[in-house]
Amino acid sequence: MAAPMKPQSLSCVSWSKYLFYFASEHLDFRLAELEAISQATKSEVRFDEESYDVKNPFLVVESPSIECIHRILSRSVLLRSIHQLLAQGTSTEELHENVRKMPKDLLDPYSKPDQTFAMRVETFNKKIPQKVKIEKIKALPLAELGFKGTVDLKNPDNEFHLFEYYGWDCNNAPDEPYHSYFGRKIGEGQRDRIQEYHLQKRHFIGNTSMDAGLSFIMSNLAQVTQNSLVLDPFVGTGSLLVSAAHYGGYVMGTEIDYLVLHAKGKPSRSKQKVRAIDESIHANLKQYGLESHYIDVIVADSSKQNMWRDQSYFDAIITDPPYGIREPAKKIRAATEDYIITDDMKDCHYPQKEQYELTDIFIDLLNFAAKYLQLYGRLVYWFPVIRAQYSESNIPQHPCFKLIANCEQPLSMKVARRLITMEKIHPYKDDTAEARIDIDHFQGSFRQKYFHKEKEIPNKTNPS
Ligand SMILES: C[S@@+](CC[C@H](N)C(=O)[O-])C[C@H]1O[C@@H](n2cnc3c(N)ncnc32)[C@H](O)[C@@H]1O
User: Fold this and answer.
1) Is the Cβ atom of 330 under 6 angstroms away from ligand 1?
2) 225 C-alpha vs ligand 1 centroid, how far in Å?
3) Rounded mean pLDDT of 178-205?
């Protein structure tokens, strides 16, 4: 997980308090996404590191301007909404007390006669009947705040929320909430994009297409912004290019499998008998009106660097390499010296492929990124792990890169994948050392480990 932002020193700008309400998924990615977006959009935020509890979807954050808050909302897929925090308390009495203490003019702009409003109650980890919700609203000491407008529950000008947090354990929710917050809604995050870009509605998908939500998170961590040049070296059906293009990136990719790239294989949708003639990554971008951000994708082996001119081009490299479980990890075999391809064979010659070990994939990826990423460009990639055997020493390192975030997505009790975000902080030079991994997590094939029963897996990373 990314290190939470540290409170900054006092400045003359007054910082207001906001309540960030996160979605209950990809918990480990929240702060990393927030940190990446706030940095990429130059939106200052700070919060108390010690108050952050990954199980609690509510986080009190300070920011010097509402514009910063809107910029964060315009990108985050992990934030449900952000609210101007008006009062909070660890008991109902304390909340009410703090509502009474609110400056009387705080709500003036939102309580005028021509402003409609709605009050809502949302509880986390406890369902309460509508009748009780109404009682909670009535119990709020709001009379002194002088709402002069009328109530409009459907389409109000201003929405006020009472949030109650009843902890995490659904079998032991307390009678009273652990924490209550009262706030005015500023806006919603980008959760709707997840439906809009859902793979079910995507023209061209494959067995390993990345879902829309995670693709957006990856582009956020990679800090893709308007005109970023973005590469996915294991592009498959290009889902990562779609999210990068959505944020303004110009996108390109390489893929070793001609059949995948040209949609010649079996359709992935169970009801689809044959592939449509126009299935392609370009068509996917066109589907979302993003075709002007498509540069190209080429059939190529990403383990080979010699097709690229020596230059740092890319602002971001985002990728999901093949783990060898659902898709083969192959590379072109080195040519044997005594083998000559005659002219008549050239048109139909396919070079031989060989197994591409996962450890080599990551080492090659870091070496490639060190050379071809711009300084301060980001490399974001998935790293599969057997959870019981994983340690931070398994993560590849490179002298040009700093590790920014390492977020776990559990896939089962046994297996997870970790989203690694690295930033190039030193320029690449001819004498720069190569990438290294302190302890090899895969020791050959991840596939073998994946399908082996737990007790049969030799745990070399932890010899004890
Ligand atoms: C996990 S999939 C990527 C899926 C992709 N993110 C998507 O949304 O469709 C990995 C892809 O890498 C491709 N691949 C395997 N070895 C490769 C290599 N040496 N160079 C380029 N692509 C390779 C596989 O054919 C596969 O399509």
Assistant:
1) yes
2) 24
3) 97
